[in-house]
Amino acid sequence: MYASLEELCCEAEEKNCALWELVLRDDMQQRGVSRRESFEATKKLYLTMKKADEDYEKELLSHSGLVGGDGEKIAKARREGWLYCGDFIGHVMETAVKMGESNACMKKIVAAPTAGSCGVMPAVLLNLQREKGFTDDRMTEAMFVAAGIGGVIANRAFLAGASGGCQAEIGSASAMAAGAAAYLAGGDARKIATAAALALKSLLGLACDPVAGLVEVPCVKRNVIGSVNALTAADMAMAGISSRIPPDEVIDAMKSIGICMPTCLKETGTGGLAATPTGERIREEMD
Amino acid sequence: MNMLDIIGPAMVGPSSSHTAGAVRIGRIAKKLMAEKITEAKILLHGSFLATGKGHGTDRALVAGLLGMDVDDDRIRVSFEVAKQEGLSFSFGSIMLPDAHPNSVKLYLTGESGKKLEVVASSVGGGRILVNEIDGLTANFSGDYPTLIVHNQDQPGHVAEVTSMLSHKSVNIATMQLYRDGRGGKAVMVVECDQEVPEEGIRWLEHAEGVLKVTYLSLA
């Protein structure tokens, strides 16, 4: 996996090669697999996301009872047509919440990059495909783009809430989805890296403070902001807006913030929302 | 970590450490047992104990002991599957000194009466470490075919194992040695790049001074 987005961009420019293609070649080499095997494995993950979205069950509640059925509420509001955010973003919100709920209810999801942030990539990708009619192969290319960005974040910083807070999970997922969305809009490697940077910048400092330590509150609904933020970042990048701080430095900033973050805000369920009177009461009721 | 870990894996939620990692611990324990498990006493430590229920850690561990993988749709109903397949299990708590917060101790019995004790931890992102086998230290991830040899602490056993592997053209990725005291019980943990052939394992089992051979096959 690449250690820097700058390196990926430079290589793409020098070799006049798409960013996703570089990520695919790197995967072939790292895992010792053929081009076809690498592509098919990635496509399978995309198709699993689609299946997971179709398999949502609106009646399910999580073990704690805190999570379930909200995706259906957004779907209903969207169908009624009164959402401020309109039909497209309504769909994005719906997919994000549904996937987060399916995860909390022990259904199969794709951890991209983590289980807690599993709603972001499908909310962006599935809805762009539905809206714009991209083929599954094109969507698979976008998955490689996201993987390339996630790989750089994993190399330079972290992807786990326990290591760097929620910015490392929802923030990284948002950066990955933003890059993928910029690619689907026709963006080159620079635009992709910019979209990722703009997305991550907006979520820097986000704490991981799950109530009762469960991947439920606030995780499920944070998938919504991760998804919508990815789309606005991609739009900004495609409109020609640049990130004044270079993408790799944004990732490094995420790391330094994560290191500074106290342990109570890193997936221990002891700070932030988890430590509110209501958060504490929910934990006590579960014991 | 590779690219498919970044945009994957496909798994049953809600947590890569508390659910997927727990399935992998059970699954690897099942593979180490190398036969059907009929009885399992499962002792939870730390965060596995504190938040395990809400994360389905209990159902995930049982699913793994039944041989399910992290994306198996039956994980949610693994207790019912265990009933059908004749695995009886019980849960308890334990305080393991110096252990990772997400740890578990398993006491397993197989259909032939074979016993196995495993302590393992889920260390993040679905990755795990097996810390102890039958009371002796063993640190391995389960990512490689792994040979665990318990023997008397006396000269020659490492040479026996490595020459057998060399004879079978198996390359050693990592190797660790531990003992409880000079001349006491020792353990060798060998992670390999290839699978160790069954006759090699049989041969080791009959070598003098070898107390037990446990093998994790990824095949």
Secondary-structure map with pairings?
The complex is a heterodimer of chains A (287) and B (219).
Chain A: H1 5-14, H2 19-31, H3 35-54, H4 70-80, H5 86-104, E1 108-110, H6 120-132, H7 136-156, H8 161-164, H9 166-184, H10 189-203, H11 219-238, H12 247-260, H13 277-286
Helix pairs in contact in A: 2-3, 2-7, 3-7, 4-5, 5-6, 5-11, 6-9, 6-11, 7-9, 9-10, 9-11, 10-11, 10-12
Chain B: H1 3-6, E1 10-12, H2 16-33, E2 37-45, H3 46-55, H4 57-65, H5 78-85, E3 88-93, E4 102-110, E5 115-124, E6 127-133, E7 136-140, E8 146-152, H6 157-167, E9 172-179, E10 185-192, H7 198-206, E11 210-216
Parallel strand pairs in B: 2-3
Antiparallel strand pairs in B: 2-4, 4-5, 5-6, 6-7, 8-10, 8-11, 9-10
Helix pairs in contact in B: 2-4, 4-5
Q: What distinguishing features does this structure have?
A:
A: 287 residues; mainly alpha; globular; B: 219 residues; alpha+beta; Alpha-Beta Plaits; 2 domains; 7 helices; 32% helix
